[in-house]
Amino acid sequence: MKILMIIPSLSKKWGGTTSSLKNFYYGLNKINNVKCSVLATYTQKEYPEIDENILNDSNFKLFEAKKEGWRYSKELNSFLNKNLENFDLVWIHTIWTSIDFFVSKYSKKFKKPYTITPHGMLDPIAFQRKGLKKKIYWSLIEKNIFYNCSAIHAITNKEYSDINKLSKQNKFVIPNGLQNEEFLNKNYTSLNSIAFIGRFHEIKALDLLLKSLVNIKNLNLIIAGAGEKDYEEYIYNLVKELKLESRVIFKGFANAKIKKEIFEKSLFLVLPSHTEGLSMVGLEAIMNSTPVLTTEKCNFNEVQEYNAGMVMKNNHPETISKYINMMLDSDLKKMSKNAHNLALERFSIDSVSKKIYKEFEKIINETSKPK
């Protein structure tokens, strides 16, 4: 089975979508008779942010895009026109770009099935951002791209429900996955920090977490991430305004090594986002034996089911303060063990890759049947 995976960017700063694709790439390539190739675009600004391992892997092909949003690349389209017929299935990891438009066009030309993973981009809150433009684009273009796909991959049941309101195409639910890690046995009595890891973007609600910290004494916050400059400046100024300089530690952009160090030093991770598909950093936390405090909008209710964290009904600062205190009063060592068990049982990349392989096998077999 030859699978062509396509994503707008492999920059580390693209966060969860990039991590999700890479994990599936390595997981699927472990399966006999599966060969995955990856196409991505990049801007000059993004190129230095791409892992050297990717740049040195011949199965990853990168094409320059002049505009960050639309991601148009003449060279990418030329590659599709010349090579797409050599693949059994195309797996698109984006919407709202020229990439999914041209992939659907060439897939139709060569009669190849394609699957779309929207990665939470059709969540109602995400859809409302630039809402008018998206509604027009959906009606004129994106709706047809979904109509012609062989299947839509949702990563949570909530996402399945959101997509179902817009498209009745065949759908399946399989979560993101992670490489297995050993249990991290932390000395909780020596820790006095919680963590936030993520993009600096208003949708991540880091400002609300900072405001909640004012009401809690003797607790530090480790922040790792990067993003929009205006929002970064807003966050730095907010820390000063709230007089939290001595309690907030900025780590900058976090690679895998820095994330692991943060998990080792943190009581738990906080995900206060206004919306998430299925947070990759949340999965990384539980795989590293770190409980998670999150919101209902983050679609990670499994942490509550396994007693591996807590789920807040909203992300108001008062609510976050209340739940941080509840977490601090809990048996975090037990939660840590539960978090690791949850990761191994539900989100092991080997397990989820086998599930998605079976879905792709069904799609390819169905496509190859005589009409």
Automatic annotation (TrEMBL):
Q: Give a Pfam family name.
A: Glycos_transf_1
Identify the keywords attached in UniProt to this record, alphabetized. Transferase
**Segments passing through the bilayer:** none
What Gene Ontology molecular-function terms does this entry list? glycosyltransferase activity
**Domain Glycosyl transferase family: start-end pairs:** 188-339
Q: Which residues form the Glycosyltransferase subfamily 4-like N-terminal domain?
A: 15-178
Query: Would I find Transferase among this entry's keywords?
Result: yes
Put simply, this protein is called: Glycosyltransferase
Native species of this protein? Answer: Arcobacter arenosus
What taxonomic classification does the UniProt entry list for its organism?
A: Bacteria, Pseudomonadati, Campylobacterota, Epsilonproteobacteria, Campylobacterales
